[in-house]
Amino acid sequence: MILNGVEIRDTFAEAFPMVGTRLIVTADTPEWALIAGRTTTGFATSVIGCGCEAGIERTLLPEETPDGRPGVSLLIFAMDFGSLKKVVPLRLGQCVLTCPTTACYAGIEGGKRVPLAKTIRYFGDGHQISKKIGDKRFWRVPVMEGEFVCDEDTGSVEGVGGGNFLILARSRGEALKAAEAAVAAMVQVPGIILPFPGGVVRSGSKVGSKYKGLFASSNDAYCPTLRGTVPSQLPAEVGSVLEIVIDGVSFEAVAEATRVGITAVCALGAEAGVVAIDAGNYGGNLGPFHFKLREIMQGAGETA
Amino acid sequence: MSGVSLKPRAPFEARVDLSGLTPEVTCPLPLRELEHLEVPCGGRSVKLAELFFIEGAPDGVLLIEIGDVRLDGVGAGMTKGELIVDGLVGAFAGRGMSGGMLRIGGDAGDFLGSEMSGGRIELAGNAGSHAGAAGSGSRRGLSGGVLAIGGDAGPRAAERQRGGLITIAGAAGEGLATDMIAGTVSVGGAIGPLMGRGMKRGTVFVDAVPELPAGFVDTGTHELVALRLIARRVPELSARLEGWTHARRIVGDTLIGGQGEVLARG
Q1: Which ipTM value was assigned to this complex?
Q2: Looking at residue A226, what is its pLDDT?
């Protein structure tokens, strides 16, 4: 399949089940909401080293939030529910509670409950008070700045982690521009995050290593500087590869983000130095979710 | 409107206890069976048909066309459905309700909505004493649902309230929110003396700071995000709290270690 001169390789991204939740963080200004969001989702690129994967799903207008202030919607994913229950209160306590003017609310109502103020409220040292509104309990924790308002808990969802595609380009600059275009388009898709820096990964990995104890190591088949020294997936004209990793609340959300991202890259086309779109997988034996690139891009335009 | 209507045949000579005569009881019954239902009246049991003209179809709402101050326990124990009273009622209306809607077009006697745990009561007129309060010998008052009073409330409203919402458009009598455990009260008018004594938790919204017992401490005026949240999440309070960003917060009753709060617009 060729789209605007870009080869869509006949392969698939292999993804894994994750458990996720959504937090709505509000603040007095959009800037402070964003600061809280970035802090809370910092150092959360990969469960391998960070314990969770997190990102800002989107910014929220005042009319979209529970308290009528500007906010952000955050998605946090972990490998299992037990891990999620640990990382969410930690990040809430260290990054939202501490951030000026913020409040935090549940962003998912269904599923198993993930504690928010249920644990953080004890910071109030007995001065915390709650207010039950409908079926929900909100806590007001006194802090030096005023009060921290927080939902007692939030729901969770069984999501998908590790959706991905690779951008193979002639040069580093051209790969980066294509990746930026993909990210700009993909962040508009609801229900997904791109947990790596700026949504882009330059150090895609393969499973295992020659070194004992390392679970993952550089994906040498896609390293242009190793072409010829290892079995390579890169044709001669490819000088740089960048990866976009996608976590989402559902298979459909990740598939849609994949489609939107590849479409944006292909819109730049071969003229912008994009050679091919590939994807990372492990032969299909490890992850139950397979995102077949050509199926996802079917009907997108020209083929060859 | 479909449903069953009860119209008094004559002014009641004694108090009539309609506790248990709720839509979920009356709606499934054919009219003939309904007519033979017995209710306590002045120390004896009287067939409903001796007291009321009964008309309508056995579904939908239960309507009492002319209320009477001697009608006690109207809507008490309701769990679902709708009961409408076109006039006033006596004591214990909506007592122990856990669901459904009770609309009263006039005034209500004492213990309106006492110990209710759910549902909604809308009273157009004034309420007697102990609205939303605990009954005699009971440890807790209203614990859920909404009790909306269109006029004034008598003494001891919200006494031992443990949850839910009471809105009083007019004034509240003495001893409002005495021993309040939790929940929310909003008062639009004047507040009687001795409010909040023994208050443990809960919130009372007022226009102006009332006279409070010695155990209440004025913490000053604060910008509270919770005000915005409540205004958006509680329809009954959205108009009342519109534009509130700051509130004067008085905490008590500290004499018993209470953390209740009286919030007045700051």
Answers
A1: 0.90
A2: 96
